[in-house]
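hiii, so i know i said id send this last week but things got crazy w the move. better late than never?? heres the sequnce for the chain we talked about at the cafe, plus the structure i predicted for it. fair warning i was half asleep when i ran it
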Amino acid sequence: QVQLVESGGGFVQPGGSLRVSCLASGFTFSSYAMYWYRQVPGKERELVAKINSNGFTNYADSVKGRFTISRDNAKNTLALQMNSLKPEDTAVYFCTNFIVWGQGTQVTVSS
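okay and structure toks below
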């Protein structure tokens, strides 16, 4: 069964940091590009970051320099390190390989 399970969301003050993770199973994780998306109620899902199977990364302009996507193929894990968080980063964060989506993890940035 192809599955993605996110964890690590939470509540943080502006300027703080959070790390969200995504555990993959049921497919050859190392062969797939992986993505982090986020969604705010009433808005479309937004691409945050992408990492290719060879480790090449891309970021949305809104998070460049603050967020870092990484992968550990030995542990079938995708991560997103988020620093200098802003209230506008508040969203549900999803990982995906475009075959399946995780259930999402809530990130709330507020004072």
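btw The chain has a mean pLDDT of 97. thought thatd interest u
miss u guys!!
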